[in-house]
Amino acid sequence: MSSERPLPETITCEGVHVELTHAHLDFTSVMNTVKSPKAGAIVLFAGTTRDNFGGKPVKELQYSSYAPRALKTLFSIADATKSKHGLTAITMVHRLGVVPIGEESILIAVSSPHRQAAFRAGEEALEECKAKVEVWKLEEFGGEEGGVWRANRDGAAGIPGPVEKTVSGVWTNQD
């Protein structure tokens, strides 16, 4: 198996851009994808890895996905959100693999003629992403072996599991 990480996977069409990547997320490049002279507002959400969960110290998070399906789901959410809120553009980028404390795992940028629609759309896109996109996270806690697999949602129940289940954020079939 190659030690090189896969290239980012993207879908871009008519003001909608979605991406899965192993690279660090860049605020400026994501904001630039939604800038437009037609937009009077840009809202950017950055989800970061915090240092605790449920009173336990978090060492790091590892994100895994079924990329072909996750990209389609991300695009569907972004496209529907753009239409519903009359957005100028929307970009959703999710990082895979290890995301250390303080680093971003997701960036969502939206632009619209007015701020109210941009704020509503950004929050809605995030909640839909957490509820539907085929991305899972392994929470590794300080001082513990293994970790806990969770759906990518706040408060979702976890399943203890070995770290070896992922290789560079891509699900493997090892049992």
UniProtKB/TrEMBL annotation:
<comment type="similarity">
    <text>Belongs to the MoaE family. MOCS2B subfamily.</text>
</comment>
<keyword id="KW-0963">Cytoplasm</keyword>
<dbReference type="GO" id="GO:0030366">
    <property type="term" value="F:molybdopterin synthase activity"/>
</dbReference>
<dbReference type="Pfam" id="PF02391">
    <property type="entry name" value="MoaE"/>
</dbReference>
<feature type="binding site">
    <location>
        <position position="130"/>
    </location>
    <ligand>
        <name>substrate</name>
    </ligand>
</feature>
<dbReference type="GO" id="GO:0006777">
    <property type="term" value="P:Mo-molybdopterin cofactor biosynthetic process"/>
</dbReference>
<dbReference type="InterPro" id="IPR036563">
    <property type="entry name" value="MoaE_sf"/>
</dbReference>
<dbReference type="InterPro" id="IPR003448">
    <property type="entry name" value="Mopterin_biosynth_MoaE"/>
</dbReference>
<protein>
    <recommendedName>
        <fullName>Molybdopterin synthase catalytic subunit</fullName>
        <ecNumber>2.8.1.12</ecNumber>
    </recommendedName>
</protein>
<dbReference type="InterPro" id="IPR028888">
    <property type="entry name" value="MOCS2B_euk"/>
</dbReference>
<dbReference type="GO" id="GO:1990140">
    <property type="term" value="C:molybdopterin synthase complex"/>
</dbReference>
<comment type="pathway">
    <text>Cofactor biosynthesis; molybdopterin biosynthesis.</text>
</comment>
<keyword id="KW-0501">Molybdenum cofactor biosynthesis</keyword>
<comment type="function">
    <text>Catalytic subunit of the molybdopterin synthase complex, a complex that catalyzes the conversion of precursor Z into molybdopterin. Acts by mediating the incorporation of 2 sulfur atoms from thiocarboxylated MOCS2A into precursor Z to generate a dithiolene group.</text>
</comment>
<keyword id="KW-0808">Transferase</keyword>
<feature type="binding site">
    <location>
        <begin position="137"/>
        <end position="139"/>
    </location>
    <ligand>
        <name>substrate</name>
    </ligand>
</feature>
<comment type="subunit">
    <text>Heterotetramer; composed of 2 small (MOCS2A) and 2 large (MOCS2B) subunits.</text>
</comment>
<feature type="binding site">
    <location>
        <begin position="114"/>
        <end position="115"/>
    </location>
    <ligand>
        <name>substrate</name>
    </ligand>
</feature>
